[in-house]
Design goal:
The chain has 121 residues and is of the alpha+beta class. The protein has one domain: Nucleotidyltransferase, domain 5. It is built from 3 helices and 4 strands.
Length: 121
């Protein structure tokens, strides 16, 4: 149990360190990603206005993801979905916030799918 607490605390420390340098603006909002054991979530946030531009896309509400969103296929589907929602709102460029997670696996798959769908970062 202690190992799990330490792992989450380490991720949170990394995320705080990243957020010191990273902020979304009106021209270039932040694409924030959160990964849980079974799902992955993404949303586009304008930090200066304090608003969410593109509502959170998650594997819980995405159609066609399958039984579990805790895999690379689910992450790709969410990357494509969040890019489509951003482009509908007129957002083409974003700043990628990996949330303290390593840029590997599901996080990388989500980012690559968002790039392929038209987002620039």
């Amino acid at each position: 149990m202690r190992k799990l607490i330490d792992r989450d605390a380490r991720r949170r420390r990394i995320h705080v360190r990243i957020r010191k340098r990273l902020a979304g603006s009106g021209e270039r909002p932040r694409l924030a990603v959160f990964r849980s054991l079974n799902h992955i979530y993404a949303q586009i946030i304008d930090d200066r206005a304090g608003t969410t531009i593109a509502a959170a896309a998650s594997t819980q509400d995405a159609a066609g993801v399958g039984k579990s969103g805790g895999n690379i296929a689910g992450a790709k589907a969410i990357g494509k979905l969040i890019a489509e929602r951003a482009l509908e709102k007129g957002v083409k460029q974003v700043v990628f916030d990996r949330g303290g997670f390593l840029f590997h696996g599901r996080i990388k798959a989500l980012a690559d799918a968002a790039r392929e769908a038209g987002l620039e970062f």
